[in-house]
Design brief:
alpha/beta
């Protein structure tokens, strides 16, 4: 059946996207523009106003325009403004040639009829890791390509672990993680901190434990989901984690970790440089699945998307720009510019490891990561996520048991998505 027009869906799409404040690598505010020096003008929007026209990122974009024989007119917005502006431009029929979107927003704009599928566009997507490109898929079509990905792991304070007699390599599942946390607590130190705030950030941080227990977003009240929330709830009750996690953003959690008082903190790739400058030695371990192995962690990062154009002849040049941006060298340049995005192809990952071998644990984490809108959840995800973070808040604050909180969440999600 044909997709509804953008105009009929733009209001709902804006509301959905307002819930998806991304887990990104840098503060985003203001706007910036840049352009190359030759050829016809092609318009480019991205959510990186912190990278001005003189930045390495802007130069990278301009170089790809020059290689395609055109001038790039780049405009940068913060994430929320970008997605809302994109929907408005689609409604008015004056969308730019290229938009970089936070990955959960791709399916929303695709569902609004704004984006050209990569298949229709003629771009080969087979080189991209399947688990990463899945975040841009909807109803069997792919609507963008990932410029890279970030994700979550457990940072640790080596000094505290050594003092508690904990070998981070021993952490393989929930049982061994709990054993490590008990040793830290017995040594008189604070075991772990994370973000359980009642926003998308809280869902983002809960998902590794949720998925790591074997739970699925289509059934928020499954026994596996209850196990995951019970794990966090037990940590709060017995003092393994502080009550502050209920209101912690990811940045606040990181600030707690940098005090040197916590043995572990759940956080992302974007803190690599900060961890290197901490006043104590740090490392990371993968977030373990309940019964072993690395838990799937959610992917952050942007997708290059191509809005529908009335003049379809523009697509051939746009394709050249996208191909330039996603060569192994291009993905490495993007990855290091954003310190760090892990490239979304095997060749790109190999190339970045040749330059930065210390990224190996993060490459492994990204290889096992999962898009939040994967499994064809698409525009259902924001509604499910809100129900999930509401349940986490209820359980950790003590207003409901994990089972009751998740039962209410499943009913809320089912009603919201009409399922």
């Amino acid at each position: 059946m044909p997709r509804p027009s953008t105009s009929t869906k733009v209001g709902a799409a804006v509301l959905a996207l307002s819930a998806l404040a991304a887990c990104s690598s840098a503060p985003q505010s203001g706007a910036a523009t840049s352009s190359a020096s030759a050829g016809a003008a092609y318009t480019w929007w991205d959510p990186y106003p912190q990278h001005d026209p003189a930045s390495a990122w802007a130069k990278r974009v301009n170089t790809c325009g020059q290689q395609a024989g055109v001038t790039i007119q780049r405009t940068a917005y913060d994430t929320t403004a970008l997605t809302n502006q994109a929907l408005l431009a689609g409604q008015e029929g004056n969308a730019p040639d290229v938009i970089l979107l936070d990955n959960p927003a791709v399916s929303t704009l695709a569902d609004a009829g704004m984006l050209t599928s990569m298949g229709d566009f003629g771009l080969d997507t087979t080189k991209f890791d399947k688990n990463l490109i899945a975040a841009g898929e909807l109803d069997g079509k792919t609507y963008g390509i990932p410029i890279g990905a970030n994700t979550l792991a457990l940072y640790y304070n080596k000094k505290l672990l050594d003092a508690a007699g904990v070998d981070p390599k021993s952490i393989k599942d929930w049982a061994s993680l709990n054993a490590a946390l008990k040793k830290v607590k017995a040594a008189g130190k604070k075991p772990i901190t994370f973000s359980a705030i009642g926003t998308e950030e809280g869902s983002f941080q809960f998902l590794p434990w949720f998925w790591g227990a074997g739970a699925q977003l289509t059934q928020l009240d499954s026994p596996q989901a209850i196990e995951a929330l019970t794990l966090w709830n037990t940590w709060i009750k017995d003092g393994t984690a502080p009550n502050s996690v209920i209101s912690n953003s990811q940045n606040t959690t990181w600030e707690e970790f940098l005090t040197g008082e916590f043995a572990f903190a759940e956080n992302g790739t974007w803190q690599i440089n900060s961890a290197a400058k901490a006043g104590f030695p740090t490392g990371i371990v993968q977030i373990p699945g309940k019964d072993g192995g690395a838990a799937p962690t959610p992917t952050g990062g942007e997708f290059i998307t191509v809005p529908v154009q009335k003049d379809t002849q523009r697509y051939s040049t746009t394709k050249k720009i996208l191909e330039c941006m996603t060569t192994p060298e291009g993905l490495v340049e993007t990855g290091t510019t954003f310190a760090y995005y892990i490239p979304s192809t095997a060749d790109g990952q190999k190339a970045i490891l040749a330059k930065e071998p210390g990224l190996q644990p993060w490459v492994e984490a990204v290889r096992s990561a999962k898009g939040r809108t994967s499994d064809n959840l698409g525009t259902k995800y924001p509604k499910i996520s809100e129900a999930m973070w509401t349940a986490v808040q209820k359980a950790l604050s003590g207003t409901a048991s994990p089972a009751d909180a998740l039962k209410a969440a499943q009913a809320q999600a089912k009603q919201a998505i009409g399922g």
